[in-house]
Amino acid sequence: MMPLHTKAHNQSLKAVIAAVTANLLVTIAKFIGWYLSFSPSMLAEAIHSLADTLNQVLLFVGIQHGAGKPTRTYPWGKGQARYIWNLVSAMGIFFVGFGFTTYHGVQSIIYPQTIVPNASYQIPIIILCFSLLAEGYSLFVGIQSIIESRGDKTFWQFIINGDNPTSVAVFLEDSLAVLGVLLAFIGIWFSQHNHTHVPDAIAATIIGCLMGVMAVVLAVANGRILMGVSASIDWETSIREFVESYPSVEHVASLKTAVLAPGRVRLSIEVEFHGGILINRQQIEKDAELIRRGDDPTYILVETAERMVRTVGREINKLEADIHKEFPEIVMIDLEVN
Questions:
Q1: Are 262 and 63 in contact (CB under 8 A)?
Q2: For position 9, what pLDDT does the model report?
Q3: H or E segment to which residue 95 belongs
Q4: Are the CB atoms for 59 and 166 separated by under 8 Å?
Q5: Measured distance CA(335)–CA(267) in Å, rounded
Q6: What is the pLDDT, as a whole number, of residue 60?
Q7: Cα torsion 85, 86, 92, 95: sign
Q8: Direct distance between the N- and C-terminal alpha carbons of the chain, in angstroms, rounded to an integer
Q9: Is 336 helix (H, G, I), strand (E, B) or coil?
Q10: Are 90 and 215 in contact (CB under 8 A)?
Q11: Residue 271 bridge partners (DSSP)
């Protein structure tokens, strides 16, 4: 079976490549449509697609950067690199997409003379229809990526609390792209049929504001993981129940998790062992008999203590191995005896 983090990596990569390809073609087409119509909503959509294309290139860089194997400098890999690039991507969407697009939309409402009227709007409409098909396909790939990598989570649980903001970013960008195309279509149609620039300019402003909201959502989603967000409560409960059901464990004193990368989690846990279960009573009785016979008690007690330390060490190694086997997403365990 393919490891979860490898599967998540492949699905994210597939979604990003599909999105970049679709957005690059759509960006060129929309700029052509804007040049022919000087429609503010068409320009907003062209800037929108350009921002999506550049930002999805950053997502691709983040996926490749974060896929590096552990090294001496990065002993646990570079899985969190993708979150840094995702955060940079969100900033780009906010400043380029939201900032420029909203400014141009508001300016078009206030200063209608900046809009050059054009009675022929069939070409922009055709371009928008082409854009809807291309970005709709990209959205379909993004949804499939989430479905295949969400694991036991529901679709919306993965969107809100998932550990793979790259797939979420592609999904949100493609969803907004489809919505933006529809808004631009409505804006241009109403402006042409009512001979007023207002619907077109309002559509451009709404598209810009939606990009701003999406940028904030993406920034929060990636920031929470960079700050060391824990795994879900249900998942932590499952780990606690598994460890406490272990024959040699009496109690879990502390349990903490931190997401390192999609499908990769760090576990810090403190346990109390059953001393009576770990003690080799037969060996202790032999040691007691030797002491009663007059052998050096110091030597015997030292041997007993060393044997106990080795016993606890073997039990820790066995417990860690069983945790890894039961929860393959856990790639790092800090286990302390309380």
A1: no
A2: 52
A3: none
A4: yes
A5: 8
A6: 77
A7: negative
A8: 36
A9: strand
A10: yes
A11: 252, 337
Tokens of residue 300, six digits = 């015997």
Q: State which amino acid sits at residue 151.
A: G
Residue 308, both tokens: 């106990």
Whose tokens are 């824990």? That residue is: 230
Q: Which residue has the higher pLDDT, 162 or 145?
A: 145
CB 104 within 8 A of CB 204: yes
d(CA 192, CA 115): 12
Asked if residue 123 has pLDDT above 90, the reply is no
Report how far residue 208's alpha carbon sits from residue 202's, in angstroms, rounded to the nearest whole number: 10
311 has pLDDT over 60: yes
DSSP secondary structure string, 8-29? HHHHHHHHHHHHHHHHHHHHHH
User: Taking the CB of residue 200, how many other CB atoms lie within 10 A of it?
Assistant: 30
Q: What would the pLDDT profile of 218-263 be if each residue is shown by its tens digit?
A: 888 778 777 878 887 888 999 999 999 998 888 999 999 988 877 7
The tokens of 108 are what? 């078009």
What is the phi-psi region of residue 38: left when phi exceeds 0, alpha when psi lies from -120 to 50, beta otherwise?
left
